[in-house]
Amino acid sequence: MAITNRPLKVITWNVYEGAALLPLITRNQNAVRQRTVRVFRQFLATDFNARATSMSKIFQRLQPDIIGLQEMSIWTLTPPPGSRAPSVTYNFLTILQEKLRAAGLNYRVVARNNNYSDTLPGATGYTYGLSDFDVILARSDFSGTFSSIQQRNFNVNDTYIVGGRPFSLVLGWSSVNVTFAGGTFRIVNTHLPPIDPRIRTANTTELLRGPLNTSLPTLLMGFFNLNANNNTLNYRRFINAGFTDAWTANRRIPGNDCCRDTDLLNVSPRLTRRDALFLYRNGFTSNRIFRLGVSQRSRTPGALWPSRYAGLYATFQ
């Protein structure tokens, strides 16, 4: 028996913060001031305004009920005290919602987990800021109701040295119970860390013991940094916990979604890993799934791919 009496249309997408942050990992304070400026300029060059327009066109075509987004960002540029130079804020959520409204769509925030945040002085005199968050959005006219909303950070996070001081790469998850089309189920959106597999293992344990510890039909989505193509440990842990991978259940062709160059200017997609997932259990079924942002027509007028990563669209019942 299907969980809902009509298909639930869902998208998950890591939108990419717009720049490679690894150059900031250094003990050298002078070096980090120079690199902070370069990182911010790369963010400007990857033009989230244009990328959000490309994404909104895809959303307009598919009309998803629920959207889970990772690496949503707020970048800030703050001049030194007493300067008449402008302050600027680039909020990915504000920008994307404006593009969606321009496309005739309205999506509201159902859940949001705020993750890492930091500011760094740059060699130009400006102070540069970046805050990361993930969101679950629902179409404004979606007929479902939401309850038991949870928004959490992981207890275990990786720590790096940035400009000679420790910086914790705090990530997390959001969950919500949804009653829709005759059924009630739980949706969980998450983003696992990119480098240390021990941190991912700890985060996987937190998910399994926390929001996934339910008898409700459950849909887990997000960007997991575990390359499911290689049947890695934490991927197997989800499968062994009873989850079905929507991609392998429906498709036999590779579903690679990662990773384009950090400047988003690859001539071809060049995707070699599978880190974005829809996982489901306790009665859900899925019979349709495909990738987003992989065709040349999805690029911006400036030739940028909409993200460093492909998104996923799937339907569930």
Automatic annotation (TrEMBL):
Molecular function via GO: endonuclease activity; exonuclease activity
InterPro entries per UniProt: Endo/exonu/phosph_ase_sf, Endo/exonuclease/phosphatase
Keywords: Endonuclease, Exonuclease, Hydrolase, Nuclease
All residue ranges annotated as the Endonuclease/exonuclease/phosphatase domain in the record: 11-243
SUPFAM superfamilies, per the entry: DNase I-like
Name of a matching Pfam family: Exo_endo_phos
Protein name as catalogued: Endonuclease/Exonuclease/phosphatase family protein
